[in-house]
Every structure is written in C-alpha cells, then in structure tokens.
UniProtKB/TrEMBL annotation:
It comes from Marinobacter litoralis. The keyword Transmembrane helix applies. This is CDP-archaeol synthase. InterPro entries: CarS. It holds the Pfam family CarS-like. Keywords: Membrane, Transmembrane, Transmembrane helix. The chain crosses the membrane at residues 55-85, 131-151. The keyword Transmembrane helix applies.
Length: 160
C-alpha cells in the first residue's frame, strides 16, 4: 500500500513540477522539446508547452524523491522520464488528430503519462497488475478533478 502511494506521488511530481516551474519562471529557459519543428502534416510535433526545462526538472524531481524513498535514483529517473515521454506521446497524438496545444482530450491527456511509468514499476517491483492499473486510473481521475482548481489558483494555464 505504501509503495502505491509513493508511485502515485511520483506521477504527481513528474507531471506537476513542469507546470509549477512554468508558472514560477515564465519564458525563462523554456526551449520547446520539438524545437518548433513540424510533422509531415504541417502541425507541430508536440507544441510550445512541452519544454526541455519541464522534462528535465520533472525527471530530476522524481529522481530525488525516489532516492529519498530508497527506491533508487535510477528508478526515479526512468519513472519520471517515462511519464514525461507519455505526455509527449499524448501531445503528438493530439497534434495529429488536429487538436491545438493545451486542447482538452479526456483520458488521452492523462493515461499515457501514467501508464508508461506504471508499467515499468510493475516490471521493477512485485506489484499486481490490477494495482498498477488502479494507480494509473486514480492519477488520471485526480488530474481531471484537480486541474480546474489549480487553474483557479493561477497554477495551471488551462482548466483541464
């Protein structure tokens, strides 16, 4: 049970740190991961809100928290990076189907960034698959529930 809570917090850190840092340091070192490149369809690969600053700081936050929990820094780096790669994957898919950056896509916005690192955690630790799925779904639902509140508090730029 404690490991499940720790994994949930790692998901929140991987995806929350980039959002908070973007609000604290707007337009500072926010180089887009896609470098402004476009795909064959003429749309951005990911969009301007996916930055190296967010990717690096989200990964570092997970690494430090995992180290503190004695899960190991390598687990934290891989977990954070997979979560943020899942976020990039969802952005890539959203651009391909014609959704604008920061447009809402329920479940697509949350599941890749939760499922990829949770699958790695399942391979890393002796966790039942149902628990891995439950943590991913709980993260997605909590993201949907708390995003409007974070928007009203001025932390998120979008209410979703």
């Amino acid at each position: 049970m404690l490991l499940s809570l720790e994994l949930f917090v790692l998901l929140v850190l991987a995806n929350g740190v980039p959002v908070v840092v973007a609000r604290l340091l707007p337009n500072s070192t926010d180089w887009p991961v896609d470098a402004g490149l476009t795909w064959a369809d003429g749309r951005p690969l990911f969009g301007p809100s996916k930055t190296w600053r967010g990717f690096i700081l989200g990964t570092v936050a997970c690494s430090l928290f995992a180290l503190w929990l004695e899960l190991g820094w390598l687990f934290g780096v891989l977990f954070g990076a997979l979560s943020l790669l899942g976020d990039l994957l969802s952005s890539f898919i959203k651009r391909r189907i014609g959704l604008a950056p920061s447009a809402r896509a329920v479940w697509l916005d949350q599941m890749p960034e939760a499922a990829l690192p949770m699958l790695m955690a399942w391979l890393w630790f002796p966790l039942p698959l149902w628990e891995v799925a439950a943590i991913a779904v709980l993260f997605a639902l909590s993201n949907m529930l708390f995003s409007p509140l974070l928007f009203r508090l001025g932390i998120r730029k979008q209410p979703h």
